[in-house]
Design brief:
Strand order of the largest sheet: 3-2-1-6-9-8-10
Strand content: 5-15%
Largest sheet: 7 strands, mixed
Order of helices and strands: EHHEHEHHEEHHEEHEHEHHEHEHHH
Number of helices: 15
Radius of gyration: 20 Å
Distance between the termini: 33 Å
Helix content: 25-40%
Number of domains: 2
Number of strands: 11
Shape: globular
Length: 437
Amino acid sequence: MHATCIERSAVKPPPRARTPPTTTSPPSSATSAVLLRTTAASTTHPTPCFLRLANLMKHQLHNLASMHIMTDLSLWAPSDATAAALNTYSRAHEASLARALPGVEPFAFTVTDFIVAWPSVVDWPTPGSAAFPVKSYDAPTRTWLHFVERALQNRGLRNFTRLVHGAETSNLLSYYLHAPSLCLWLRRRKALSQPLPSYVWAIEEDTPIVGSLATPLTHYMTSSTADLLTVLMPHTHANALTRHLYSNGRFRDSIPGFVHMWEHVERFSSRLLKRLDEVLSTGAAAFGEFFAPTVCNATEWCTCADLRSDGFVQRQGALYAWSQPVTRPTLKRLMSAAERVRKQPGYARWVHGVQGVCDVVALAECAGGPQRENCTLPKDKGDGLWVPLDSPFYFFLLSPLPLLGADAISKAELLLFANALQSVPSKRPLLAVPTRF
């Protein structure tokens, strides 16, 4: 089997002066698009914090990449609307968002768009559906799924509302499977005769960068042609032994292997997205953490690279692949580090998951925004899709479990955050829960 997408619990520390990856440099004509992944919770009535975040990203990407917002409306769209009515609903949402953010191209969709685009997929792998009952998963994952369900109920939202093939389909489909929405975005551009970028970056809203987006984009645009750029780090419970819980039968029968990635930040080549679209058209589907890297690994021409290899994510996934939110005390130390980052040209590192868009933009602006006299967290961290993740409910239910040995973070590693995180315990365990905060 073709194998370029290899999971690693940790990678070697990057050299102090970054050197280009071993992959071939892309042609000078290569283009990029950056999509900020979010939901109608942020885009129906964009708050000043969300607008600041989008505009900061647009500013950092000037002359490097086009800026887009990808928003999932499924949970908020009328549950009894037809596909045509939902299409109209999405286009109206895009128009409203475009008026609020000139120069940023919005793309809105619902789960119904998936069903229309890929009718061959009759059993989308979504926990809680008939083919994927919640009771089949391990205890930590069941805890997370119950937490998600409770969070939706607290907001008056419903997970399963839409009838497809005579059964209810989850409104969280794009939450579990990222790639289909990116394939739809590429289809839309082709249908409208818009230029197709060479590479498509997808960044989750709760994943700010300590530094500037310009740094990794410039680095990889001039040094790597990898079709999939992500964090290829294994997971305790979601692996080849449990692949039946995270993929449908058609996928397991047609795509060999099972490779895991953490998908908070990912870059796809357009040709890989077209390949993923082809696989979906056969009826094969899998969780986002497995779908793209497994397909890429089984495709002769497809290549992978890891963001950790060049220092844009900590080498053991610290403050990125932890299945828990970044706490506010840690954020305050990160803010202190971010002030020092300004004095380190070329430094940039992604952090996940920062809860609340006001905290996200505060950290992003501190390290990569306009000059500020000091960097402080706002009193209000801002809204997000889920209930507050610092609630006693969350931490009481989720017991810490080690993640394949990636539980030791040395002082030297913490120094990479400009000495601001030295007080973080060096043996802090990770939670083995497949989250996408």
